[in-house]
Design a protein that fits this description.
about 100 residues; mainly alpha; 2 domains; three-stranded parallel β-sheet; 3 strands; flat
């Protein structure tokens, strides 16, 4: 399952101990570890069920048997009515997500 966690550095350390420092350089320079996907709440109204990112979210969620974390961030100044509208749209496209407000 993909989860939101501060333990990503622990995975890197464990892999470093097991596989050696050189194999860890790819992780540090890339994104081989994942803590889920993040949707842009500002652009969500333009997406459909056939949009690539939505299709990918649903495929990965099926593969992980619902264990995919999809984050839906909102600006700190976002209005409640706008947040509600985006959450309603997101719920029509994907099965689960985690809405949250960014702190600026």
């Amino acid at each position: 399952a993909m989860v939101d966690s501060d333990e990503l550095t622990r995975f890197v350390t464990l892999d470093s101990e097991k596989y050696g420092k050189n194999s860890i350089m790819d992780v540090l320079e890339g994104d081989l570890y994942s803590q889920g996907l993040e949707l842009n709440s500002a652009g969500l109204d333009k997406l459909t069920a056939k949009s690539e990112i939505i299709s990918d979210c649903n495929k990965i969620s099926n593969i992980l048997n619902g264990g995919l974390l999809v984050k839906l961030p909102f600006e700190a100044k976002a209005k409640d009515a706008d947040i509600k509208k985006v959450i309603e749209k997101a719920s029509s496209l994907i099965s689960s997500f985690k809405p949250f407000k960014l702190t600026n």
